[in-house]
Write a structure and sequence with these properties.
Elements lengths: L2 E6 L5 H15 L6 H18 L5 E7 L3 E8 L18 H9 L3 E9 L2 E15 L9
Helix pairs in contact: 1-2, 2-3
Length: 140
């Protein structure tokens, strides 16, 4: 299964950079049917990372198969995200969007980022899955 990783500095353009990366990878892997949903979900997660996890930036790991993708956004904050109760017009809709777009196929786990893979270091990874994930799919 192909893996692609990217380090993203904490900057106002980080969500756009992440969207462009995901779009390019998924088109190259002939996964065009899930590009828009994946770009939206990545944008939400990278934005959350930039807003809530002051640190050295964000790590992005994509694992693809012929029909789907598992994307994980890593940062240095150890606090796991929690979807807010109710609706807030000011913000806090990112995880609601992620949950809706992925059909609930997302989660978070503690673990840092080291050359594109989880490690025992501090931090967390927030992941989502899109597309059909067979036995050789990008799941755990």
């Amino acid at each position: 299964m192909p893996e692609y990783s990217l380090r993203i500095p904490p900057h106002a353009t980080s969500p756009r950079i992440a969207r462009d990366f995901v779009t390019s990878v998924l088109h190259a892997q002939r996964l065009g049917a899930i590009v828009d949903d994946a770009a939206l979900c990545i944008s939400e997660l990278v934005t959350n990372s930039c807003v809530h996890a002051a640190g050295a930036g964000t790590g992005l790991l994509l694992v693809t198969n012929l029909a789907g993708v598992r994307a994980t956004v890593f940062d240095t904050d150890v606090t796991l995200p929690v979807m807010r109760e109710g609706y807030d017009a000011e913000g806090g809709r990112g995880l609601w969007i992620l949950d809706s777009v992925t059909g609930g196929r997302w989660g978070a786990e503690r673990g840092g980022w080291r050359t594109g893979h989880r490690s025992g270091e501090g931090g967390k990874g927030v992941w989502f899955e899109l597309g059909a994930l067979g036995p050789s799919g990008p799941g755990r």
